Amino acid sequence: MIDFMKWRHLYKINYIDGTKNATNMLYTPYVSDDGKTLCMWYDEKNSYQIDNNRISKELVDFFYQRELKYLKKLQDYSWTPRLIDTDESNNRIFIEFNEETLNHITTNPTRDITKELPDWKDQVFSILNNIDSAGYYKLALYPHCFYIGENNTLKTLDYYSFIEKDDCLIERSTIEGMIGSESNNRFDKATVGNMINFEIFFKTTMLDHLGQCWVDNPFPEFYERLNVK
Fold it and tell me: Per DSSP, what are the bridge partners of residue 35?
């Protein structure tokens, strides 16, 4: 089993105030010394999670199983990181990585994503189009959910956020603990009765939610292209 305990944590830079923050509320990310491996440890007790008092073991187990399920299902796509190893008894997954995410490029005023990856928009849309054609929505679409892999191939992270298009309802109480204050509005808009409709959530995310995160936000255009193809 891979020993990752001395690896560094991966953080994101806040898109609004520039502070260093946890990348997510569900798992603790560790990056190897050479930057080539990412460990995702779904551990509700880890101090990396500033809101871990809201996160139950049942919740992280639920999302760990989703992460593992969709990573395995989608391994054949070029945009899926290679699955290196798993430790299912401890909710750990090891995947290939490359030092940093797009967040570290887009939030740095001395860097320019259009120079470092000129076709980034084409690659992001191709990923979304593949996902759509395969019958899924992907709900985590921030720059910190993507990284540049070998040969400038864009890859995406956070497979817990995949959901089948034809089975896209989840009872809200099941995931309530991971709904942060900044996401309440999106979840409220998508809540129908006691269920969250993730078709609605995906639409809201694509059309209204990503403008502060991405350069020349292309996601409203992407949403229209997905729906008229």
Answer: none
Burial class (CB in 10 A: 0-12, 13-18, 19+), 183: middle
In DSSP notation, 142-169 reads: SGGGEEE-GGG-EEE--GGGEEETTS-E
**Who's near 126: CB < 8 A, 6+ residues apart?**
79
Is the predicted pLDDT of residue 98 greater than 70, yes or no? yes
pLDDT for residue 47: 87
Give the number of C-alpha atoms closer than 13 A to the C-alpha of residue 52, restricted to the C-beta side: 15
Q: What one-character-per-residue DSSP string does the chain give?
A: ----TTSEEPEEE-TTT--EEES-SS-EEEE-TTS-EEEEE--TT-TT-TTGGG--HHHHHHHHHHHHHHHHHTTTSTTSPPEEEEEGGGTEEEEE--S--THHHHT-TT--HHHHSTTHHHHHHHHHHHHHHTTEEE---SGGGEEE-GGG-EEE--GGGEEETTS-EEEHHHHGGG--GGGHHHHHHHEETTEEEHHHHHHHIIIII-TTTSTT--HHHHHHHHHH-
Q: What is the pLDDT of residues 207-228, one digit of tens each?
A: 999 999 998 999 999 999 998 7
Q: How far apart are CA 29 and CA 10, in angstroms?
A: 5
The mean per-residue pLDDT over the stretch 24-52 comes to 91
Within 13 Å of residue 167, how many CA atoms lie on the same side as its CB?
3
